[in-house]
Structure formats: structure tokens, C-alpha cells
């Protein structure tokens, strides 16, 4: 009996050690975040083991775990009709809000899910419930795009998928089928989905052949650039649970079908040459010391190889 108690105590202590991580005092429900982070870390470790054994790519294994525990069928309610279909060969889940006699044409949102271009699905519970809520509360038609993921495809195939599906949806006959007002269509997405939504929005703005245009862009914590991994938000959240900086950098590497050997160089902003005129011009556009207010920049300092070289030279001089 005593040995069982000792073993149980040891197991509880090990579990607490695995789950617990220090968090800022401003985080609400810290234990929920810790448990979610521990669950995700556990899934990553299992997928890495599967990859090591040569059974499957680690991202395929990780996404299988995520989708297996969260997949939801297209289930309609009295308020929202939900259907799975495809737009020009791209899978989509469509959520149709309740019709209103006083508003025969509905507004619409084309939604692109996040997940580092490699994980999640329009069909998992979180995104299904989000789009259902939007359809009901906005009296809208929500088109959630099931674009292809890394490692089955890489950049720019994800962009091609969302462009094809959205162009199909914007056809007059398709908008008429779903009773959508062509003047009230929004593009939206979170995280990597925000990146794809922004890319799509830029392309459509410049596409003179499109009869119907997007009216609004709503990006949710979008991933918009891969030149500077030391912005104030990256420095502040360098070890944030679930998505620390080095993991975000790895998602970028995977998206571009790159090599993990470059991860450390990217973390210290040494993945573009300061001697190349074009790279310098692009970096100038991301000069957050002038673009962001002091409430965001705080005491954070820009990181570049030029600055690092100056520090190293100063250290050698001393």
C-alpha cells in the first residue's frame, strides 16, 4: 500500500512538472493554458517519434491527432444550414444563416483557418463553431476553405487553393445560388489563414478581370512577414506556450520547403543579406521603431546582424 502511494505521488509530481510552466500574471485561466500546452507538446512528441520511426511525416501525424480528436460532421441546425461541397475542386464547408424577408440578399465571409499552413481543418469543431456563430449572428453565408496543407503541398499551393475557391464563389451565378449580396463580401482568417487572406486580398485588388470585388478584409493575429523575427511581439512572446518563436520559425521553413538548419539564423534575423539592396528596402518597410507606438515598442530593441556585429566588435575591443 505504501509503495503504491509513493508511486502515485511520484506520478502526480512528474505530471505537474510536465504541465506547469511559468506564465505572466496577466494570463486568465493559466491552468487551462498550461493543460492545453502540455497536450499539444505531448502530441508533438508522439508525432516526432512516429517520424523518427519512419512511419509518417511528423506534421501528417500531428494533424491526424488534431483532426481525429476535433473533427465535426457538417451538421445543420434550425438557424444555420451547413454543407460540405467543393468550389473549383477545392473543398469548402458552407454555413448559411437564416433567411430574413427584409434582407433577401445576405452578406458573406470567406474564412481561411490557421494552423501554420500545415495543421487544423475547416471541419474541426473550433472552426465549425466559429463559422456557425458568424453565420447566425451576421445573417451571413460563411465559406470556410479546406485548403491543402504542408507536407502534401508547399508554398504557393495554399494560396492557389484559396484563390481558386474564392474566384469560384464570386461568380454571379454562385452568389445568386447562395443569395449573397456581391457588394458585401469579406475575406478573413486567423494566423496562417490571415496570411493567406492578405495574399488573396492583394491579388484580387490588382485583378481587373474580377467583376465582383471583396469589400472588407478582417485579419485575426495574421502572420504577415518573415523578415524580422525580433519584432516587439516576437520578443515579448519568445517562449509563449503552444507557439513559441522557434516553432513559428519552423512553420515558415516547412511552408517554404526549407531546411531546419536555417532556423537559428532566422531567429537572429540573419536569413537575408544586409548587402542586398532589395532586402534592405524590404527591411526598411518593417521599421517598427517608427511604425509602432511606444506602448508597443516599449524597451525592445531591433535585432539585425549589423547590430550584432557592432556588439561583437565592441566586446573584442574591450
Structural description of this entry:
- The protein has 14 helices and six strands.
- The protein has 318 residues and is α/β, with parallel strands linked by helices.
- The chain has three domains: 48 residues; 151 residues, Rossmann fold (3-Layer(aba) Sandwich), CATH 3.40.50; 66 residues, no CATH class.
- The protein has a six-stranded mixed β-sheet, sandwiched between helices.
- Strand 3, helix 4 and strand 4 form a beta-alpha-beta unit.
What Rg do the Cα atoms give? 23 Å
How much of the sequence lies in strands comes to 5-15%
Secondary-structure-derived class: alpha/beta
- Give me the oligomer status: single chain
Whole-number tally of structural domains: 3
Strand order of the largest sheet: 1-2-4-3-5-6
The CATH topology of the largest domain is given as Rossmann fold
Q: What is the share of helical residues?
A: 40-55%
Unreliable runs: 307-318
CATH class of the largest domain: Alpha Beta
CATH architecture of the largest domain: 3-Layer(aba) Sandwich
GO molecular function: hydrolase activity
Family: Belongs to the 'GDXG' lipolytic enzyme family.
Active site: 191
Pfam families: Abhydrolase_3
Describe the structure concisely for a colleague.
With 318 residues, the protein is an alpha/beta fold. 48% of the residues lie in helices and 14% in strands.
Index terms:
alpha/beta, 3 domains, six-stranded mixed sheet, 6 strands, GDXG_lipolytic_enzyme
Topology:
Elements: H1 2-19, H2 30-52, H3 58-70, E1 81-87, E2 90-96, E3 106-112, H4 125-138, E4 140-145, H5 157-169, H6 172-177, E5 180-190, H7 192-205, E6 216-220, H8 232-236, H9 245-255, H10 263-267, H11 277-285, H12 288-291, H13 294-297, H14 305-317
Parallel strand pairs: 3-4, 3-5, 5-6
Antiparallel strand pairs: 1-2, 2-4
Helix pairs in contact: 2-3, 5-7
Amino acid at each position: 500500500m505504501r509503495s503504491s502511494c509513493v508511486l502515485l505521488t511520484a506520478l502526480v509530481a512528474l505530471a505537474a512538472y510536465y504541465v506547469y510552466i511559468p506564465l505572466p500574471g496577466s494570463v486568465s485561466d493559466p491552468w487551462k493554458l498550461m493543460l492545453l500546452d502540455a497536450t499539444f507538446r505531448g502530441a508533438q512528441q508522439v508525432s516526432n517519434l512516429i517520424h523518427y520511426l519512419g512511419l509518417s511525416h511528423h506534421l501528417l501525424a500531428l494533424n491526424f491527432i488534431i483532426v481525429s480528436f476535433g473533427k465535426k460532421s457538417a451538421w445543420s441546425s434550425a438557424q444555420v444550414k451547413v454543407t460540405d461541397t467543393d468550389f473549383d475542386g477545392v473543398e469548402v464547408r458552407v454555413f448559411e444563416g437564416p433567411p430574413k424577408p427584409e434582407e433577401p440578399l445576405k452578406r458573406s465571409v470567406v474564412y481561411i483557418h490557421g494552423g501554420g499552413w500545415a495543421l487544423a481543418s475547416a471541419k474541426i469543431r473550433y472552426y465549425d463553431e466559429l463559422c456557425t456563430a458568424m453565420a447566425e449572428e451576421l445573417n451571413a453565408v460563411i465559406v470556410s476553405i479546406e485548403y491543402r496543407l504542408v507536407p502534401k503541398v508547399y508554398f504557393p499551393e495554399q494560396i492557389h487553393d484559396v484563390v481558386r475557391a474564392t474566384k469560384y464563389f464570386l461568380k454571379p451565378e454562385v452568389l445568386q445560388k447562395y443569395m449573397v449580396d456581391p457588394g458585401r463580401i469579406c475575406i478573413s482568417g486567423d494566423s496562417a489563414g490571415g496570411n493567406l487572406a492578405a495574399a488573396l486580398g492583394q491579388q484580387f485588388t490588382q485583378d481587373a478581370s474580377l467583376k465582383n470585388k471583396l469589400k472588407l478584409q478582417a485579419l485575426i493575429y495574421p502572420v504577415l512577414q518573415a523578415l524580422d523575427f525580433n519584432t516587439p511581439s516576437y520578443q515579448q512572446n519568445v517562449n509563449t506556450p503552444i507557439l513559441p518563436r522557434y516553432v513559428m520559425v519552423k512553420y515558415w521553413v516547412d511552408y517554404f520547403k526549407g531546411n531546419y538548419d536555417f532556423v537559428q539564423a532566422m531567429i537572429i534575423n540573419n536569413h537575408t543579406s544586409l548587402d542586398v539592396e532589395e532586402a534592405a528596402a524590404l527591411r526598411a518597410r518593417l521599421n517598427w521603431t517608427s511604425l509602432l507606438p511606444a506602448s508597443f515598442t516599449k524597451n525592445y530593441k531591433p535585432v539585425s546582424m549589423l547590430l550584432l556585429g557592432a556588439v561583437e566588435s565592441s566586446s573584442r575591443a574591450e
